[in-house]
# Entry
Amino acid sequence: MNKITSLLILLFSVSSIFAQVTLNPKVDRKDEYTLVIEKIEHTASNTIVHCLHTAPFTYEKGGWVNIRPNTYLIDRATSIKYPLLEAKGIPTAPGKHQYTNAGQTLSFRLIFAKLPSSCRSVDFIECENDSSCFNFYGVHLSPAAYAKNGASFDLGTFYADFDAYCFYNPVENTWTNWDEGDIRGIFNINRNGDIKIVTASSEQLFVRIGEVEEGSLDNGDRYKIIDTVDEEGEEVVVQLFMSGDMKLIYPKGFIIQFANSIRF
# Structure
C-alpha cells in the first residue's frame, strides 16, 4: 500500500554502454508541430537526433518534407553551433520526400558534430526567424555519462522527468485517472546499471538483476523490459515504451504507469 501512496519512477538505459541517450526530450517551444524528436543519441564521435515527421492534413496528399543542409544545434550555454553533417532517411533541400496520403509518417536521423558532455540544453534550428521551419527551442538533454573513479568508459547514465502517472488495480481491474507528479529517475548509476529514484523528500535504489529484453505490442509500439529489485527485496519489472511511457509492474499485477506530459 505504501507504494500506491508514495509515487516511484523507474527507467533504464536503452542504449549500449558506449552511447548516452535522451528519450523523448523535453522541449520548451517549437515552431512546427508536424515533427517530433524521438531521441537524441551521443556516440563517441557524433550527436544523432532521431526524428519522426507526420504528413499534415492541410494538404490533400500530405505534401512533402525535406531538411535544409545548414541545419544546426546550438548549445544554449555557450552559443556554439554544431552543424548537420549527414541526413539519413530524409532528403536535404532542394530534394523532397513526397507523401501520398496525409497522416503518413517518416522516420529519419540527423547526424551532427558531437556536443560536449557539459551541454544540458540546445536549440535545434533549421532556419532562423522562420516559423514554418523545424525549429526547436530549449531541448533538454540528459546529464553527462557516469564514469566511476575516473574510468574511461561511458555507462550511458541519464535522467528522465515524468509529470503524469496513474495506477492499475488488478483486483478491481481498473485504472485510476491521470494525476500530476514531479519525480526524477537517475539511471545506470554504477557498473551494475542500478537506478536511483529522487523526489523532493526521498531517494530509493533499484538494483538491476536482469538483462534488457525487447518486444513490441500488436499496435507496433516497441518497448524494452528489465527485472529489478527494490530496497525491500521486491522484484519490479520495468517496461519502457519507445513512445515515451513507462510502466512499473509489481507482483500480483499492480502497475504504475508514467507519461512525459500531462494527459488529463
